[in-house]
Amino acid sequence: MFKEGRVDLTFHPSTEQAVSHGHTSTPETTDLVPRLKTPHLSSFKNISPLLHLTTTSLHLTFNLSTSSLTSTLPLVTMPSMPSKSSHPHSPTGISILIVGAGFAGLTTAIECHRHGHFVRIYESFPTLKSLGDIISFGANGGRIFARWSEGAIAAKLRSLSIDLTGYGFRIHKYDTGEVVYHQPTPLQNPEAPVFNGHRGELHQVVFEYARDELGIEINLGRRVEGYFEDGDKAGIVLGDGERATADIVIGADGVRSKARQLVLGFEDKPKSSGYAVWRAWFPNTDMIADPRTSEFCSNGDTFNGWIGPDVHFLFSTIKNGSDCCWVLTHRDEHGTDESWSFPGKLEDVYKVLEGWDPICKAIVEKTPSLVDWKLVYRDPLPTWVSKHARILLVGDSAHPFLPTSAQGATQAMEDGVTIAVCLRRAGKEGVQAAVRTYQEIRYDRVRAVQKTGETTRDRWHKTDWEKVAKDPTSIAFPREDWIHQHDAQKHAEEVFDEIFKRFTGPEKDKNEPLLPREEPVAVA
Ligand SMILES: Cc1cc2nc3c(=O)[nH]c(=O)nc-3n(C[C@H](O)[C@H](O)[C@H](O)COP(=O)(O)OP(=O)(O)OC[C@H]3O[C@@H](n4cnc5c(N)ncnc54)[C@H](O)[C@@H]3O)c2cc1C
């Protein structure tokens, strides 16, 4: 009954369990997913040389018609299921250095690991710290999380994230406080869930998955100071002068990227957007004690927004109402030479809230400390890829987002998935064309999603209240299918061949990106 095929096994040291995923050459056997449990990893060593054994993964290639093997390993017939193991593809031999362990760097590392590449991360932070406040992942990011560790990572993120199933999003007019639109929250799709939670808490889950479960090497306290490449390899220079090389280097070093400057020669020249955000995260103790605000923390999670002239105030309660978070976007006339993020003053917030629904001040006055975060514009980069196409940018270093897009972290994740697929499909010999293909797949989509940050902000800050009275949905937070229903992995697999061949044909100048040069448009 078994024909020629391949089985990839991932060994989980914590459970001493090997999970396998079958790939066979004949359709009648594709729904046979062999699954085996093993009490001791060492019991497999005598299968060598058919077995490639690392500390975390076993990759086994064998002929499924081997009767001795089927009698030794309890192969069972399972229903057809997508490959969900942490390492569903065989090793490609492609080595990658990633600079930065934010969501872009970690997702890129995890996805590259899943697609069979060998990755190492270098991060300047010496320890993992719970930094930041609220961060959003749309369904297009949730779809990526849902594929990790057979849904276990998504389950962990769920317990830390806001649950608005019953409450929805209540949008108020800033002065009267009336709810002008009650936007329902769509039911969670388990294959593409939405997550909103504390950046530090969600980041810790992803970080620990990469480091502890997948065994990805993450070097903390290692600031990257330089980059180099030639036609055959790329590398980094660390603060102490140590050098590391690989087939490619991925710069995931955030909004103030050094890679962007060193590799592509673009200086970080932020321009004032005219806006800034005050933001805060704090426990619910004082909110519960005040009868004016206790309702937000007593019956589960809540999400409310107050929309005013050139200002909007968003307030949410999270983890069954135990944590509170608000973000207030307002006009800001200060220059960009000042620090982009520094402590804010409550007195300044109160001035902006004069004449507003008094509940807004009742919430804000419970805040122990807040951050003042400048929203600056940056010109979009004409390319994210170095001259020899062995160094590339992902996430904020390539394309920062305005918070009103609620897509910055999710687009960073889509980058990671896309480069992982491109590298696997291209193979080690096609690495440079894969890097150029990655950019071509991602560039226009990212630009289009970036622009939604401005359109949503303008929709709220220049509200036509007569129009809202006639059509309350006109003030809703947009959840467009072309953004949220996107499956980055499926898309990359589908378009890869067509785009890749443009960079591999003999007639092409392979150093020339195919992208049109755009005029500068605003990003965060
Ligand atoms: C401390 C912090 C707090 C944040 N808080 C929020 C928030 O509350 N809400 C929100 O929506 N977004 C927040 N963001 C931004 C958000 O995480 C990103 O917009 C989004 O997730 C895309 O992530 P990224 O990985 O591209 O960039 P980042 O998340 O910025 O990650 C970049 C990483 O690269 C590292 N790095 C930078 N330079 C070097 C170097 N030379 N060598 C080695 N490592 C380097 C940084 O230490 C950082 O860990 C925060 C980012 C940071 C770093």
From TrEMBL:
Keyword set includes Hydrolase: no
UniProt-annotated stretches for the region Disordered: 1-31, 504-524
Keyword Membrane: no
Keywords from the UniProt entry: FAD, Flavoprotein, Monooxygenase, Oxidoreductase
Pfam families xrefs: FAD_binding_3, NAD_binding_8
Domain named FAD-binding: residues: 210-449
Comp. bias (Polar residues): 12-29
Gene3D superfamilies from the UniProt entry: FAD/NAD(P)-binding domain
Family: Belongs to the paxM FAD-dependent monooxygenase family.
Full protein name: FAD-binding domain-containing protein
Organism encoding this protein: Neurospora intermedia
Classification of source organism: Eukaryota, Fungi, Dikarya, Ascomycota, Pezizomycotina
